[in-house]
Amino acid sequence: MSDAAPPRRETTAHREPAPGPSTPTTAPARPAGPAAAEPPGAHLLASLAPLLVEWLPRQRWFAGKGRPITGFTLVAATELLPRPYGGTAPGLLHLLLRAQQPASAGHPAPAEDCYQLLLGVRDVLPPHLAPALIGRPAAGPLRDRTLYEGLADPRLATLLLERLRVPGRLGPLRFTREPDATISPGLTPRLLGAEQSNSSAVYGETYILKLFRRVGPGLNPDLELPRALANTGCSRVPAPAAWFEADLSGLSGLSGLSGPSGTPGAVGNGGPVEPMTLGVLQPFLPGSADGWQLALGALAVQADFTASARALGHATAEVHLALAEALPTVVLRRPQLEHLATGMTRRLDAAVAAVPALRPYRDALCAAYEELAALGRGGRTWRAQRIHGDLHLGQALRTAADGRWSLIDFEGEPARPLAERRRPQPVARDIAGMLRSFDYAAAVGRAAAGDWAERTRAAFCEGYAAVHHDPREDPRLLRAHETDKAVYEVLYEARHRPDWLSVPMSAIRRLAEGHRATGGAAV
Known about the structure:
globular, 19 strands, seven-stranded antiparallel β-sheet, 2 domains
């Protein structure tokens, strides 16, 4: 996603300085006594920690920017390709690593996020891979070897595709391919550089591999939902061809990492653990452009975008209907609606405390949430289902050949717990995200915008209504979700892009004034 696009909740749009010189804890503490054993993988972790404590915070996908890393725990280590000594052939080491970070003023609780790393290993790094350099460990099993971001190396990215092409298991890693998927060997990889929360590589303009960086136990929605949609025959979302995950159940001990001919090993907790989704391979859509680029292009030449917005609304409704068919739905009654409104109010109060510019609008904004709760107390209900969870123009692709819209990136907001991302929600949340995205596009192309946002928002809702229901018929539900989204945007921009703060603040004023003037919700 371009840094100019609307903010995503799980990422930041800038790089914080690397943490200070403090040395992190490198492994769990050794038990006392003469018979104490070295924790599995301690030598490997000790050798990597000084490099990773500097390198990790500089990565766009690192979620804990602004706080130092105080320690690491090795979750699993697997050699996908043994590292040879001498010669020019690379090795590939797959790591799952927890990074500990302390609480801070903006983060009241300590963090211990698990990250997926692919470390290339060479004696000497070729010049074309210099930007991928991590460093050279001074001790341990990788002493004096050169470590680098493995996905940037075409040879190693090709190896990863080959693992997906031929299903099987290596240590804790399990590779799976759909039975009817045909993945040709030898597809040339290229690493994409625009993403923030994950990493992706395109293979031969045929497939795209998304590698999740911040991972945890459980089925990632970006695998679960596209597979479910494929089973309904919905063609608006590329169906996964292959994927891989880490299954740590019952694994203990780390072996094969002390010499040049190491074998796979893993560190687990010894008990049942849900598999972690690590990566998904899907068809690549060549000749497509995302909605953000297309909207800005239309604004630049003062072209009409309502037909495209209407078609995008139509596509979104098709996906929502297919998700409701494929997966269970629930009814939101008074307790659920009150809980929803309480969460929105809590986020608003946190934002008001951090951004004083919100204070004059707090009561009017909060009234939108209270109206939603009051409707629940009055007996109103809404249907909730699985949704995209982070829908905006950058998550929609339109192919040039036929002008057809597809939706991508069903991961939701990675900063939120996985269980929350997999919870049924009103479709109004997705719709509100797209409506806010039209506002952002209009702001970036403000010289030619005029009433562009208003017209495209209306067209999107019209297209949605042609297939599903008209979201404008539930104005209070939609207004509450759009307000919640705009409040998040204010907090994001104040922290990371203060020059952009006027964009969501304009929406805040519109939403607050609309309530004061009518007591209702204007779309």
